[in-house]
Specification:
By secondary structure, the protein is of the alpha/beta class. It is about 40% helix and about 20% strand. Helix 1 crosses helix 5, helix 6 crosses helix 19 and helix 12 packs across helix 15. The chain starts with 13 loop residues before the first strand and ends in a 14-residue tail after the last helix.
Length: about 550
């Protein structure tokens, strides 16, 4: 049994009986911090001894203990003190347990898992035990707000890049906001994080088929990795007690790992806002709708999310109509515009000087994380002699940190003797893109949006599959004249050279492309949700008729 907490003579004292040491220790610390001194007993024997020696204001009692049934102790307590408030806790939320607890006079039944704030609320509202300090909210009780963002991607960088852009803008305001990013990417360190933003690394997983994920590096089963990730997400949320939880792209998380956390958040008395953020194009509409229907996503969006932010504009792609979000109340779906890094980085002349480039054309070849960019970059590298024969262009390839080393090494060998430099990463990619005359890229959201925002010509080679997302984006933008398209089925050095030469000879994209204020709008919408009071969670005790 832990040593009793110190307290003032008249302060309320709680006895917590639970045989899970980590939970019991964290709960006691949390309750102590808000003015509810708490003593821990790990079994029935320790609880009986503590109650014989001291008087308690409330009892929090687990059902399954190492030396017996907690409800037997409740029956003993009732013979001695019929009025002591007792909260029963159990991972087995059975009708039999609830009925017996109620019959023995328990004031509440808390099914595990629950948040520590929920426990504090229950002690106040049900047991009538008032803390001497308010429950910590947001930044550990220091004012401002705390946001947890979930970015599942373990393969690319696009989802994480959008979240970092939004987080960087969100923390730049008053009152202060801290953002903790739950990330699956092994390369999160490539991003410079501002003050107020930090990360928690989840084990990386990769998608190997429809609704099938496997560990990227760990030599364990998919189920074991999924369990670790789900527990890390839930425990982080329990410890941080965020004011808002922003989920990127995957409403249920990888392998449904977010569902326990979403339900936990919904059950809090002062529950955080839960928000889903989506890029404009996900996949073919029929694929997304069918997958969401089979998985029950529409029910989740209705019952467990407060809002959906779409990082795009309906005039270019009507995300709500395409994917069935128009079934939700319209006020819950908000188009933010396109999210990209803010302009105003290094001037083009400064970038060119740092590269040792004069006034000749600069072609930048990039593809985000780069895990499957090998064919596009090989074809572009093969196009360099034909392009150089017609222009005096210089090339900078940014392969991305996730490109397999053997692919990168082959590119480096083939580039010898050509006006080409090959970098793994670029810490200030937006400035490099802004300084380029042409960007050759796959049809990922971030690079295209950032290039168009800086009026840089784009030659795009969309990923051929399995998702239709990149082809849909590339086709729409090519039809509107925003990009030059190389179909992946026709990918060859000759086609790439033709498109790059045409792009260099043509005008830059039109100025004033609409909807590039998505970062600012998303941050503003999140701040608005932070300031809006959420409805109280459901009653914690369901009394039997």
């Amino acid at each position: 049994m832990d040593a009793p907490s110190t307290s003032t003579p008249n302060a309320p004292r709680v006895l917590l009986v639970d045989d899970q040491p980590t939970f019991a220790r964290n709960a006691a610390r949390f309750l102590d911090a808000i003015g509810l001194p708490t003593e821990v007993a790990s079994d029935l024997c320790g609880a009986r001894r503590a109650m014989a020696e001291r008087t308690f204001s409330a009892l929090c009692l687990d059902v399954r203990l190492t030396d017996g049934d907690g409800l037997d102790l409740l029956e003993e307590v009732r013979m001695v003190d019929p009025r002591l408030p007792v909260l029963v806790m159990s991972a087995e939320d059975s009708a039999a347990h609830r009925q017996r607890a109620e019959r023995l006079g328990a004031v509440g039944f808390l099914p595990k898992p629950f948040s520590l704030r929920t426990l504090a609320d229950a002690l106040r509202d049900m047991a009538g035990v008032e803390p001497s300090a308010p429950a910590p909210r947001g930044r550990g009780g220091r004012g401002g707000f705390t946001v947890v963002m979930y970015s599942h991607d373990g393969y690319g960088l696009g989802h994480l890049r959008r979240n970092v852009n939004i987080a960087s803008r969100l923390v730049d305001g008053d009152p202060p906001v801290d953002v903790l990013l739950l990330v699956g990417s092994p390369s999160a360190s490539v991003f410079a994080l501002p003050k107020g933003v930090d990360t928690v690394k989840l084990p990386s997983v990769i998608k190997v088929g429809t609704d099938r994920w496997e560990p990227r590096n760990l030599r364990m089963t998919a189920g074991a990795a999924a369990d670790i990730r789900a527990r890390l997400v839930q425990r982080t949320v329990e410890l941080v007690q965020p004011d808002l939880f922003l989920v990127d792209h995957v409403p249920h998380g990888v392998a449904d790992e977010l569902l326990p956390t979403l339900r936990l958040l919904r059950g809090m008395r002062h529950r955080p806002r839960t928000v889903l953020g989506l890029r404009d194009i996900l996949d073919a509409p029929e694929v997304v709708r069918d997958g969401w229907r089979r998985a029950g996503v529409y029910d989740t969006l209705r019952d467990l999310y407060d809002a959906v932010l779409v990082y795009g504009r309906p005039e270019i792609f009507d995300t709500a109509a395409a994917y069935g979000l128009d079934l939700l109340p319209p006020e819950r779906v908000h188009y933010c515009g396109y999210v990209c890094a803010p302009c105003g980085g290094r001037p083009a002349r400064q970038v060119r000087t740092s590269l040792g480039i004069g006034d000749g054309p600069l072609v930048v070849v990039t593809a985000g994380g780069g895990h499957d960019a090998g064919p596009m970059m090989e074809a572009t590298l093969g196009a360099v002699p034909a392009i150089v024969a017609r222009t005096d262009a210089t090339f900078v390839f940014v392969t991305g940190p996730l490109m397999p080393p053997f692919v990168r090494n082959a590119l480096v060998r083939r580039a010898e003797g050509l006006p080409v430099r090959i970098n793994t990463t670029e810490p200030d990619l937006p400035s490099l893109v802004g300084a380029a005359d042409v960007v050759v890229t796959m049809a990922g959201y971030n690079t295209i949006v950032e290039a168009l925002s800086q009026r840089t010509r784009v030659v795009v080679v969309p990923r051929s599959g399995p998702s239709a997302e990149q082809r849909m984006r590339a086709t729409r933008l090519a039809a509107s004249g925003h990009v030059h398209l190389v179909e992946p089925d026709d990918l060859a050095p000759e086609q790439v050279a033709e498109r790059v030469i045409a792009a260099l000879a043509g005008p830059p994209p039109a100025a004033g492309w609409e909807g590039l204020d998505g970062t600012e709008n998303a941050a503003a919408r999140l701040r608005e949700l932070l300031h809006r009071e959420a409805p109280a969670g459901p009653a914690l005790l369901e009394r039997q008729a």
